[in-house]
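Incident log, entry 3
Record: Methylmalonyl-CoA epimerase (134 residues)
Problem: checksum mismatch between cached and fresh output.
Input:
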Amino acid sequence: MIDKIEHLGIAVKDLKTASKTYEKLLGIKPYKEEKVESEGVTTLFFQTGESKIELLEASNPNSAINKFIEKKGEGIHHIAFAVKDIKAEMERLRSEGFKLLNEEPKKGADNKLICFVHPKDNHGVLIELCQDAE
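Fresh output:
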C-alpha cells in the first residue's frame, strides 16, 4: 500500500545552480548530498514538511538523468511514493499489470530501497517506490 508522496525528483543540468534556486524558493538549505554511482547521479535533498524535493544531476553521460534532460530538458523526473513493504508492493503492482523497471528492490539515495514503475503504465509519469533500508 502507498503511504504518502516521499519526494519529487527533479532533473537538473547543474546541481549547484539549481540548489541556489531551491534554497531561495523554499527558504531552507539542503540536508544531504549523495552520489549514487549505480544510477550515475548526484542527488541533493531538501526537506519540506513531510515530503522532500530531490534534485538529480547526471554524473556521467550515460545516466538516465542525462538522457532525460537531453530528450525533455530539466524538470520533474519522477514521483516517489513511500511504502512499508516494497517487495509486497512490487508484487501487487505486477499482479495489477504494471511493468517494473527492476526485478528486485535496489539501493537508492537517502538510505532507501527503491523500484521504478514504467512511465508508459502511468500516463507518462515515472513512479518510484521507496522503503527505508534497515
